[in-house]
Every structure is written in C-alpha cells, then in structure tokens.
Write a structure and sequence with these properties.
By secondary structure, this protein is of the alpha+beta class. The protein has 2 domains: 41 residues, no CATH class; 38 residues, no CATH class. The protein contains 3 helices and 3 strands. A 3-stranded antiparallel β-sheet has the order 1-2-3. Helix 2 packs across helix 3. The protein starts with a strand and ends with a helix.
Length: 89
C-alpha cells in the first residue's frame, strides 16, 4: 500500500497492482496528522478469498485465452468478486 496526498491535502491509500479505487482517509488540514494516522492504522485490508473458490466462481475453465497483462489471474478474479459484492450492496 502507498499513501498519496493531493493538492487539496486529501490523503488516499492506494493498493499496488490492483485496479481499484483508492481509499480516502481524510484531509490533513481538516483532520490533522494524529487523527489521519489513527484512521490509517485502524483501517484493515479486505481478506483475500480462497483462490480455488475465486477460480470456481469467476474463472473460465473452457477458455484457452492467454492472460497477457502484468498481474495474475487471482487479482482479476478478486476484482470480479469485488464488483459483484459491491453490486449486491
């Protein structure tokens, strides 16, 4: 994970190698350093699902396509699972 601060002093956490929206923790000016650090420390990463279940639910066993992007299929399946979970909310 990496933290970024934009020109409005909003603090975001971004995941490496994931195609996901960043998590906004707050604003340095409005919330202060101490509060932001507490938020960042208390925020927990989502639990990664079992790879076999991801493959069964979102993989395509009949496909003969080659996965050509830099990431791996587990990330692709996790993103698909996250999209489904967000749609169900």
């Amino acid at each position: 994970m990496r933290l970024t601060v934009d020109r409005k002093f909003d603090v975001y956490e971004r995941a490496y190698n994931y195609n996901r929206e960043p998590v906004k923790h707050g604003n340095l000016r409005e919330n202060g350093t101490r509060e932001l650090l507490q938020r960042i420390q208390s925020w927990q990463l989502p639990i990664y699902p079992n790879v076999v279940r991801l493959a069964e639910g979102f993989g395509d066993p009949a496909s003969e396509l080659i996965h050509t992007i830099g990431g791996n299929l587990q990330i692709k399946w996790m993103d698909a699972a996250l999209s489904v979970a967000q749609a169900l909310k």
